[in-house]
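A quick word before the example. In earlier lectures we treated sequence and structure as two separate objects. From today on, think of them as two lines of the same record. Here is argininosuccinate synthase written that way.
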Amino acid sequence: MDREVRKIKQGLSLKFSELVYNGFWHSPECEFLRQCIERSQEAVLGTVRLSVFKGQVYILGRESPRSLYNEELV
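And the structure line, produced from the sequence above:
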C-alpha cells in the first residue's frame, strides 16, 4: 500500500468500526466500506505469528513473499 491509500484506509477503518459498534453491519454504507477495505488488501499476502496473553497481543514475527523489506539493504 502506498502512503495515500494507507491514510484513506485508516479513515475508512474508523468509520467502519463506528458503524459495526452501532449495529449497522448490514447497512449499505458498511457494505461499501467492507468492499473498499477488501480491495485495498488484495495484494496483502503473508503470515503473522502472534502471542496472546492476558488481553495483550504481541507480534512475534511476520513474513511475506511480497515484502518490501530487504535484509541486504539494512
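Notice the following. The first strand starts at residue 47 and ends at 53. We will return to this example when we discuss secondary structure assignment.
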